[in-house]
Design brief:
This protein is α/β, with parallel strands linked by helices. About 40% of the residues lie in helices and about 20% in strands. It has an eight-stranded parallel sheet. The structure holds pyridoxal-5'-phosphate. The site of pyridoxal-5'-phosphate has 14 residues, from strand 8 and helix 9.
Length: about 220
């Protein structure tokens, strides 16, 4: 099926209040152009270098989301244009984003990534680390970042109940810290294989790659 048709099928099954991030990592610019022509304006990439190249090549009304793990020394390359950083998982990274955003006189929106999966390999904060960040005195002094929500990935498993349980857990953390952080309104959870469950559990931003662009050859 075509990229356009895939996008249509997905948008037909999700409500308008849910933001669809088209995850275009590893895909050629021609694929992104096809999605763009079909009306898609939000793209997610997981490597900064690749996102920069696509940003240069593509129209400027696109919102670029960095969904992958971010190395601090590369933040400077995306600070000029990135629209949302999903994978903030340390205070040091947050400080670097703030510093680089300041150079461009911008405020960069960020999501704190929570570790909800069973696998030890997935990045993210636990609840203690989350609270340490948002309650720290220094956090309040960062003027060029804004935390607008949380992101999380479920365990890679066939066990739907486990996936649901993990999303439920993230939603409850999200609801609890809405009282601490003003303007928190993004809950980024759900990918091709589990976005329906994620939406049922309260997601309002889904990151979908293979169901739009087809399977990837590399990660
Ligand atoms: C690759 C990726 C996705 C999209 O995965 P699909 O299964 O292809 O939809 C979503 N979120 C993150 C963080 C990713 O790295």
């Amino acid at each position: 099926m075509s990229i356009e048709q895939n996008l249509k099928n997905i948008t037909a099954t999700i409500s308008e209040e849910i933001t669809l991030v088209a995850v275009s990592k590893t895909k050629p610019v021609s694929d992104l152009e096809e999605a763009y022509k079909a009306g898609q304006r939000i793209f997610g990439e997981n490597k900064i270098q690749e996102m920069v190249e696509k940003w240069v090549a593509m129209p400027k009304d696109i919102q670029w989301h960095m969904i992958g793990h971010v190395q601090r020394n590369k933040v400077k390359y995306m600070a000029e244009f990135v629209s949302l950083v999903h994978g903030v998982d340390s205070f040091r990274l947050l400080k670097e984003i703030d510093k680089q955003a300041k150079k461009h006189d911008r405020i960069i929106n960020c999501l704190l990534q929570m570790h909800i999966a069973e696998e030890a390999t997935k990045f993210g904060l636990n609840e203690t680390e989350l609270h340490d960040i948002i309650n720290s005195e220094e956090f309040a002094t960062l003027e060029n970042i804004k935390i607008i929500g949380l992101m999380g990935m479920s365990t890679f498993t066939e066990d739907q109940l486990q996936i649901r349980r993990e999303f439920k857990q993230l939603k409850s953390i999200y609801t609890a810290i809405q009282e601490n952080i003003e303007g928190l309104n993004v809950l980024s959870m759900g990918m091709s294989g589990d976005y329906q469950i994620a939406i049922e559990e309260g997601s309002n931003m889904v990151r979908i790659g293979s169901s739009i662009f087809g399977a990837r050859n590399r990660h």
